[in-house]
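Bug #77: duplicate submission created two jobs. Keeping one. Sequence:
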Amino acid sequence: MAMMEYTIEGITHKVEYDVFDDELIVYLPDGTTRTTWLRGLTIKTAIRPHLISYLNGQKVRHEM
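Kept job's structure:
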């Protein structure tokens, strides 16, 4: 397992991931996973939408 850091809206988030052949498995901070076929994408590019989606979901839950 490897780790990558992203800074979004001034907050640094750490995301762990694995790559098996062309399949990327992203481990989000709450323990859930997301998978993506890389098909030429960089790992960093492929992880970012999953993290942003996760963070937006967390934001909505806190606003309710």
